[in-house]
Amino acid sequence: MAAALEISGLRKSYKGFALKDVSFAVPEGSIMGLVGPNGAGKTTIVKLILNLVRRQAGAIKVFGLDNLADEKAVKNRIGFVHETPALVEDVPLRDIASVVAPFYPCWNPALFQAMLREFELPAGKKFKALSHGMKMKFSLALALSHDADLLILDEPTSGLDPVFRRELLDRLAGVIQDGRKAVLFSTHVTSDLERTADYVTLLLDGEVVLSAPRDDIRDKWAVVKGGPELLDPVRRPLFRAVRESPYGVEALTGDIPASRAAFPSAVFDRASIEDIMVFLHSGASHD
Amino acid sequence: MIKLFRKDFILHKKFALGVGLVYPLYIGYMGSRIGHTTLLPVLCAFLYVIVPFVLFGREDKFKAETFTLSLPVTRREYLRARFLLSWILMLLMFAAGSLLMAVVPGAKLPAATVFGPRMVLSSLAFIAVYFGLLMPLFVRFGQAGLLVFLVVLQITGVLLMVFRSSVGIGLIKTLFRLVPNAVAEIQAAFGPAPAVFAVLSLLALFSYGSFSLSLALFRRKEY
């Protein structure tokens, strides 16, 4: 399957933070969830794709086009929603849309109007009069109205009520139905990914620690619950992270068959994306 | 380019209309009170140059540049549009301001002087110099760049005042008269038409240098 977005060896350093050789791909016709705790580097990756910050190494290709050499063509195929939408505030929504529309040859005014109605956004209302959730909805309407082939959404569900949040996730699933489009969706709300994502990339401290189809993650990863025998140093390499509590020991494994064989009396629960994120994040400091 | 102009027009139309109506009146009246042929272009050019930065400062204030740069537009195109729009605005202000200066009753300089080649070229030269210095600062520091420029001007002024006794008032006058005198000398050496061409070429070259520097800074800017 061709890649809608392909990132390889991406590096970017700030004082106290660095993206380290980030590589992953979003196949066409899929939704990729980019997940990680705050400060993991999700927004930096999104900004690098849009050339809002400068990369120090690596390559970013969108439908085979380099994001710097073919910047306009690449941006033309991207619909973007920023985590904190910022536009000139004292202008009505209809004016903002009339500014954005000419930049995209495929702008669909009827679709945009339909979305304004659906999202209950009055076209004459000024941007500054919108709540954060409404601003997010307006940004989504802009991003979805020009038939973008790649939607990049940075924390799109923050500030949204649960009903709209569910609708948005369903809408994203609808976007990729033609098998050609793709969605990259950064979040730290892992339940959104469980519902929607086909692929998950987990970032911790600027590094990709896991990038795989969601179903593979579900099949391969488990939380093992047991007693102190889980701390046995000989069998310890089976686990990616171990956590002790007054009630016992919990461990995260990416090799369920081998772990079952090594600890037949332990309890195995399927690991959620949140479990994996929390274990690996805390494992980095406690392990 | 047109799309970017259109964007600025739609997003800032009420503000621009307000400034466009009131500001030339202010400049026209203020300019009509000045009877000094060197002081007039020095002061008024700065007032013309402020206009585009006030407009761009709105986008800076709302942090809306991130969104604009996520649209299908390169940084070069974005900056080029800003340079061109700035020059259009400054020339419109210059034309309106000069016209009002000449027609205000009791104006200290006659219309022939206000629209004379020396005054026009000197004004354009000061506009180009101020704008050429300000734009890279604005690109690098945003609205704070304007303050940096003003602070540097103030400090330079204070230093000149402090050292007036040691360097002599003649040097200060020479500094301020540098541009008008250069225009006059070029005019005297080559005649009016080649002088206009020479001055405009120099200004274009200076503006291109400012654009190149601004673009280099803009490409390094991160959002």
Task: Please characterize this protein's 3D structure.
The complex is a heterodimer of chains A (287) and B (223). With 287 residues, chain A is an alpha/beta fold. Chain A has two domains: 211 residues, Rossmann fold (3-Layer(aba) Sandwich), CATH 3.40.50; 49 residues. Helices cover 33% and strands 30% of the residues of chain A. In chain A, helix 6 links the parallel strand 7 and strand 8. Chain B is mainly α. Chain B has one domain. Chain B is 86% helix and 0% strand. The mean pLDDT of chain B is 87.
Tell me the major beta sheet of chain B. none
Beta-strand content of chain A:
25-35%
Q: Into which percent range does the helicity of residues of chain A fall?
A: 25-40%
SSE succession of chain A: EEEHEEHEHHHEHEHEEHEEEHEH
Order of helices and strands of chain B: HHHHHHHHHHH
Spell out the key features of this protein.
heterodimer, A: 287 residues, alpha/beta, Rossmann fold, 2 domains, 6-stranded mixed beta sheet, 4-stranded antiparallel beta sheet, 10 helices, B: 223 residues, mainly alpha, 11 helices
Explain briefly what this protein structure is.
In chain A, 33% of the residues lie in helices and 30% in strands. Chain A is of the alpha/beta class and 287 residues long.
Would you spell out the secondary-structure blueprint of this structure?
The complex is a heterodimer of chains A (287) and B (223).
Chain A: E1 3-14, E2 17-27, E3 31-35, H1 42-49, E4 57-62, E5 65-66, H2 71-76, E6 78-81, H3 93-100, H4 109-118, H5 132-144, E7 150-154, H6 162-175, E8 182-187, H7 190-196, E9 199-204, E10 207-213, H8 214-220, E11 222-226, E12 239-245, E13 248-253, H9 256-262, E14 267-270, H10 273-286
Parallel strand pairs in A: 3-8, 3-9, 6-7, 7-8
Antiparallel strand pairs in A: 1-2, 1-4, 4-5, 9-10, 11-13, 11-14, 12-13
Chain B: H1 2-32, H2 39-61, H3 65-70, H4 75-103, H5 111-114, H6 117-141, H7 143-162, H8 164-167, H9 169-176, H10 178-190, H11 192-220
Helix pairs in contact in B: 1-2, 1-4, 2-4, 2-6, 4-11, 6-7, 6-10, 6-11, 10-11
